[in-house]
Amino acid sequence: MALFKRTVRDGNGSIVPLADLYVRNELNTALVTIYSDAAMTTAITQPQVSDSDGAVTFYVPPGVYTLTAQRGGDEWVEVVKIDPQRVYADPAALIASTEVSRKEGAFWTTQDGFIYEEAATSASDHHLTTAGGVKLYVLPNTSGDLSVVACGAVRDGVSPTVGTDNAAAFQIAFSTDYPVIIDAGAYRVSSVTIAQQKSIKGAGMGETIIYPVTGNSCFIIATDHVEISDLEFRGQTGSGQAEVTGDCILCDAVSNNAAFTRPMEGVKIERVKFRKLKMNGIHMAQPLRESVIRNCRFIGMGDPTSGASPIKGRQTLGIASTINNIWVEGNVFYGFGTPAINFERSTLIASSAQASYATLYIVGNLIHGQLLDESSGVEAVQPEECHQVLIQDVTDLWCAGNKFTSSHPEFSALRIVNNGTACDASRVIGNTYAVATPVAGVTYSRGIGNATGEFVFMQGAHGFVLTGNTMNGNVFNNDFTLDQGSLTGVNLYVDGNVTSNGAEIIIDTTGMGAWIGRVATNESYDERRSGTHRDDLNVQEVIPRVTDIYDLGTSALRFDRAFVRTLRVGPSGAQSWTSGSGSPEGVLSATVGSLYTQTDGGAGTTLYVKETGSGTTGWVAK
User: Fold this and answer.
1) For residue 396, how many other CB atoms are within 10 A of its CB?
2) Burial, 6: exposed, middle or buried (Cβ in 10 Å; 0-12, 13-18, 19+)?
3) 147 bridge partner residues
């Protein structure tokens, strides 16, 4: 059985798409049976129609045939001789072949449907060279995709240390102009670079398995508009983590592509699982913008010793720019040794400038502090102490619709801090923060009892919104702490949040200066403040941490109006000032020194002073 592949052309040499092609025996003009596969199991009904590029492909026994192409009343006839050719069992057998050259342009095939075109003997851009010295181009399938298996990848991966290193085969596929498919199977890969805009797609999480080799960045994205989806980076399947360091996916064009001196953009990572490796899952090591991490799963990733995280945004390159318009959406995190989402600012090597993060969206993720086996729900590894999400120096953050469970008792579920500048225009909206129910017989350290860390910690905010969040089961700690430091001009909105267990929402405004804000309609609210300044305040009580220290407003920065029912003054708050209709005498109980304003009084009956007694008598009109 031989493969025939041809582009239909007219008498002028122009490509003819959508032409009807008939294959006949040259001797008796009878139609012959042609097939779509080398094993001759699936016949093709004639005529075969050329595709939009004029191409036709079929298998037929060796022989001499008349080909007739027709379209719109025109007809082109060609007599061809199809020589017998060997069809190899698989790409490995083809690459190991000692068969000599057929001729430039000849097709080589395997029984699993992979097709190769013979290159010129002088070619330098070929993809493979057989043991017989034949240079070959790997051709895409009928959908236009190129398989890593066709490029020589071997699916014998067992662990990060056992199996063929397929880096060379993957590099061939990643260096072509075609979209790449990584067929179902397990592959061991050390390090490959993606320097061309490309889609890379596996057969699904749990179907396409990549075992990274320690000390490497397995997939290095070194250009714009790269999409990676539907595969799994795996270390362990049982308890514990594989002792593998480095990065599963590294976004770093500047260090790996000489043409790059600007931020990368258009990276999309979707439906990828990262499982039990002491490595970074996704490491944004250089400025990145307009990119997405969506519907991925991170199970037991990260390492406190190396600082590896499931998602890490730390910049260490000498290019001053921002992480801009990044979406982290719909992902699942179970257990991590360092923050699950770690956008930590750092000083750049080649500059004194510092990286910052603008328009960062963290939306609809499940971030669970315990490392649980997905099937049994039993804890496999006790994670280290860490914040679940750490963000430093962010502008225009959206953290919305996420569920944080089992955060460590001494650390925050969400920690947003500044490094000398404000975290501006940030919103934490509609998230759920909860302590998970422990599995029977399992010892947990995260989020169970005597917790001391906040669900949410915010330091240095301008234009910060905290609204519609639910904070459940955070025993003995503060659900939300805002530590303003010495920032001024703050616009804070805290509204519609629900807390439980008597947990506090703390806003520490010591030394702040002027600010505008709203703290209202939060349920189960037990609020304690130090140095509080606010307008439009609607809470149950405001209590400073230390008595007789803090002011409500200043001589230079005053509130316009205060609306209170009864104002209590003095060291013990015994004296009051209130108002009402009618005389207070015999009606209103108060201590000596209290004041009363009669709303319907007249001359000499508008202001009353309590001069004697402790009951309802002793009021004197003034």
Assistant:
1) 17
2) middle
3) 181
Q: What is the pTM of this model?
A: 0.70
For position 177, what pLDDT does the model report?
92
The beta strands (E) that lie in 489-540 are given as 490-495, 504-508, 515-520, 537-538
Residue 92: which H helix or E strand, with range? helix 91-95
- 443-465 tens-digit pLDDT: 332 222 223 345 565 555 545 66
Q: 501: burial class by Cβ within 10 Å (0-12, 13-18, 19+)?
A: middle
Q: Strands 537-538, 504-508: parallel, antiparallel or unpaired by DSSP?
A: unpaired
| Helix, strand or coil, per DSSP, at residue 254 | helix
Query: 173: part of which helix (H) or strand (E)?
Result: helix 167-174
- C-alpha dist (Å) from residue 147 to 92, 175, 199, 203, 571: 14, 12, 12, 11, 80
Q: How confident is the model at residue 358 (pLDDT cuts 50, 70, 90)?
A: low
Rounded Cα–Cα distance for residues 360 and 493 (Å)? 19
Q: In this predicted model, what pLDDT tens digit does every residue of 399-426 receive, in sequence order?
A: 777 777 765 555 667 777 654 444 555 6
Helix (H) or strand (E) holding 88: strand 87-88
Give the percent of the chain with pLDDT over 90.
34
Nearest residue to 93 via CA among 41, 146, 141, 132: 132
